[in-house]
Amino acid sequence: MTRNKRPVFINLFQIKLPVAGVMSIAHRAAGVLMFVSIPFWLFVLELSLKSPQDFARAVEIMQCNWLMPFYLLLLWSLFHHLLAGIRYLLLDIDIGVEKPLFRQTAWTVLVAAPVLVLLILAVAI
Description:
Layout: H1 19-36, H2 38-50, H3 52-62, H4 68-92, H5 99-124
């Protein structure tokens, strides 16, 4: 009997990941998003430190309504990355490695990050 050695196409959208897998992918995506946004934040920081007129321009940029989804996404990525990072640090010292607690902490991270963003948004408005 010969086995077929050809590569198998796997549709990643049909794979059902466990909640910890979804959280892990979101943790990586949040880190990439924060890293990619660094040039924008450095530009705004540099602009705000140049002169009073440039500071006013930086404030204008920060108050653009069309940038609000970008800010909320970055806020989510910050909270998610922070909470997931704390979870991973606890896992490194063998806290929360039992299956029920492992799943529960993953759900907690996935739910808590958007809730924190909504709380910040509610306070800011």
